[in-house]
Amino acid sequence: MKRFLGFVKKEFLHIFRDYRTLFILFGIPTAEILIFGFAISMDIKDAGIAVLDLSKDEVTQKLTNKIISSGFFKKTEDLLYYNDIDKAFKKGKTKAVIIFEKDFGKNLFSEGKSSLSIIADGSEPNTATLITNYTTAIVNDFTRELSGPALNKSVLIKPEVRMFYNPNLKSYFMFVPGVITMILILICALMTSVTITREKEFGTMEVLLVSPLKPVQIILGKVMPYFILSFVNVLVILGLSWLVFGLPVKGSIVLLLAESMLYILMSLTLGILISTVSKNMQQAIFISLIGLMLPTILLSGFIFPIENMPKVYDYVSMIMPPRYFITIIKNIMIKGTGLMYIWKETLVLIAMTLFFTGLSVRKFKIRLE
Known about the structure:
The chain is α/β, with parallel strands linked by helices and about 375 residues long. The protein has 2 domains: about 45-165, abc type-2 transporter like domain (abc type-2 transporter like fold); about 170-369, no CATH class. The protein has 14 helices and 5 strands. The longest helix is centred in the middle third of the chain and has 30 residues, at about 170-200. The protein is elongated, with a radius of gyration of 26 Å.
């Protein structure tokens, strides 16, 4: 019995000495619970609203203030012309535009009715539906207030809802870009981390290093096939989305493919980094799957809007590469924007690629000495 207890004690000491195992056992489950608890929210918070007020009277000002002060929305800008609507959406901060017709207040009091338009960004169907429902409810509440005893008559404000980019609110406008983002980072990071960790675990990496090939050439030889196959994956998914769902690429296909190659390269370097901090294939697989898949789904803006989450998750998502590629691919595929609207996200991905590469090379050399 003493031998058995001594063996159990030795195993506990072995686990407590390995910070990677402790992180897998306690760190990742704790993080996932916190992410699931706060990130999955179907409420609206600080959604960007732009206003095109063609009337500019007291009623439109009061209704605008009521919408903004509700806590669900924040005003991003005041528009002057209809042509500004597309530009506002392409900037990415505006989720909906409210348009007040000319002589809105005058028509409301003289004719007893008036109309406004709510145009939402349909590239995110769930968010667009929530925004239009919340806005319509606030408008209806404002109408009831106006129809009180002070006015001594009933009035009607009729909201007209339209969707930009995705008029029919088809869900694949959201899922196709998200699936591309998730598949690329999982395949690239997972397969790269496993293939290099396998060589280390089986003791064959040292054999490769004594060959005429340089360490950098060995790493490039390992990742190059995954780079090519992942790029083929992008072509297949884009082809299927066009043939099966009828989802075209509204922007430059060359720019989209170039951004995809950058994202693939970044994911490969992330996989190499994971391999340097993993002792065996099991750790590499666990970190790649659990550590990347769920945060990609929850914290990238793929399904749940980041602005609806607590502010701390906004900062956490800033270190998640999928957040930036989701923005890039949606802008190019659905909104048809060019590089001038996504250059910041592109620079972030380039910086991440360089950072992961430098850190991986440094740690990889240390592991092999």
